[in-house]
């Protein structure tokens, strides 16, 4: 039976669920999300984002869409990553409040009302904390704990579980954040650019019931690079020249020190050593010039650029 079309009415809560090769999980997730949202007693929608699944996930989602008008399905023609899937879901969400969660049944939709309630206490972002996480220690929990500590130190946003997808946001906040790469785990830090008030609550976490995790220890290096990028964005987004300038001045200082050493040691007996030292000083000076030039180019890009990463991904996206 076709349920009433809430798309024509005011929607209060949008639940965004990215999925990738989760054909066995999407139906249980759908029913669990609906039960949790019904408990809110407010209009809602569920947005599934199929991230280029290779199994029958998209066919199952089309079946759900066919009998429930509260469901929206976005389909990427190729795998674009969890961040791109979340960004697409956030863009198409009509709710005043937006909840994100994984589609593998490890996040528990029962926590959605608690996240919404916390938002309404005056917060802009509420993060889930998988305090009793049901994952392998060495490949998932330990790297995650280390990453959370580093992210907290670097960004200043010290929450326990940046990697938990179960979060709630005010739509005005999450829609103002430009997400790309693999920045979904850094959403709390990115929202500080808007002055968002951030809270954290303990949420349930269950062992994976179907399939296998799409992520492993191999993502550590990408996380490290993303941390550097986030620090650049949150700390120097409006003044990239400052970031590169600080680095270039350090290099210039080292170059000057090496040059002074080269001048002090100059003699015919140490000619070869002097040549090596002076060459190092010259190369470091050129590196400093290069960094300073990158800062200047970055300033120009900030003021004149209009590129948006989502423009590249949209041609692969189908909306039901």
In short:
The protein is an alpha/beta fold and 320 residues long.
Approximately what portion of the residues adopt beta-strand conformation?
A: 5-15%
CATH superfamily of the largest domain: Spore Coat Polysaccharide Biosynthesis Protein SpsA, Chain A
Main sheet overview: 8 strands, mixed
- Mean pLDDT across residues: 83
| Biggest sheet: strand arrangement | 7-5-6-4-1-2-3-8
Rg, nearest Å: 24 Å
| Helix content class | 40-55%
Q: Strand tally, please? A: 8
Q: Which consecutive residue ranges, at least 5 long each, have pLDDT under 50?
A: 1-8, 309-313
Count of discrete structural domains:
2
Overall geometric form: elongated
Using the coordinates shown, work out and report the CATH topology of the largest domain. Spore Coat Polysaccharide Biosynthesis Protein SpsA, Chain A
Order of helices and strands: EHEHEHEHEHEHHEHHHHE
Number of helices: 11
